[in-house]
Predict the structure.
Amino acid sequence: IGGNFTQQFQMINHSTGGMITHTGGHSTPLALYNPASGFNTAAANLNFAFQIEDGIQVVLENYMSSRHHSEFWVKGGYIQVDKLPMFGNPDWFSKNLRVKTGHFQPNYGDQQFRRTDNGNAMWNPFVGNYITDAFTTEIGGEVYLFPVDGLLLMGGMTAGYIGGNIAATPVAAPGQEQQQRNPTLYLKAAYDKQLSELVRFRLSASMTANGNQNRNTLYGGDRTGSRYFMALEAANATAAANFTSGRWNPNFTNKLVAFQVNPFVKVAGLEFFGTYENATGNARFGAAPDPEDRKMTQLSGELIYRFLANEQLFVGGRYNQVSGNLLRNSTDEQSINRLAIAAGWFPTRNLLLKVEYADQNYKDFPVNMKEHNGNFNGIVIEAVVGF
């Protein structure tokens, strides 16, 4: 049984250059939410892992409270098979293979291992997640191969949608493309090695693809919400309905091909983690369909220094940028960048207190959007419990 709890106190300011044009042609500035310093809604997780047989475990993951849902709800659950006791535990499987199936978080990219998952903020040196957050939960299966020490190969397939869906797809009008519900296929390779007592190296590469899906949720699958409450939100926004403040979903809802490469190097207390992500896709069904594929690139680099006994204290910085054709039905390019500086303290291995200063900027968005010359910046303090 495991649990995670977080509480934040934020002091964030924001501004926009966006304008609204009225009848008659005159324009006035877009009105933003008026934020005050204060506590955010607490987040909590509750997890269960059952060892039902030698080498076979069942995991149930739950959100007890989140920004988007204040009630208890299930994140997902899966079964993981590392041995085959029903067949006498053959060594060829126990040493080289793993099978995972259920409703779970697809193993795409390594940034997911350092992101905050609602109440679980123990592995994130910062308070916020990436601007474009590659996270979802889907129904499917993964097969892992461990051919040699330090090398992981994985192939997976999911239904391509955040939940169950048996509704028939709409029949296409004459001359239009038929909407389908294709599965998502994804692959991953990773090499991870402790090269010496002081040096660890990891390099991973992932790809995921779906050619025709009614609602691909890879970049919109986090239903819990971001840490920057009401940052750059409209005056009439609410924290529950506008729960992705500070993030950007490129809306590749119907077609998506994405690649992510993640290097990690740790030398004594100094560590570097990087992300290069390239995605191509479209939203070709529904309102404002894309006439052609759009592209997006995400870059991130973070440098962390951990010190004192058991690396109890750390300081670090992260730069994150998203650029490309970020708007539906548009060939123009936009970009968003964030600089974050953070420090943290582990009083014990189960307690973490961290503080982050973030400065996020939006460039080349249309003048009628709140993101036009938009900015938010400020400090968020977060307390974390994890066990």
In short: DSSP finds one helix and 19 strands in the chain.
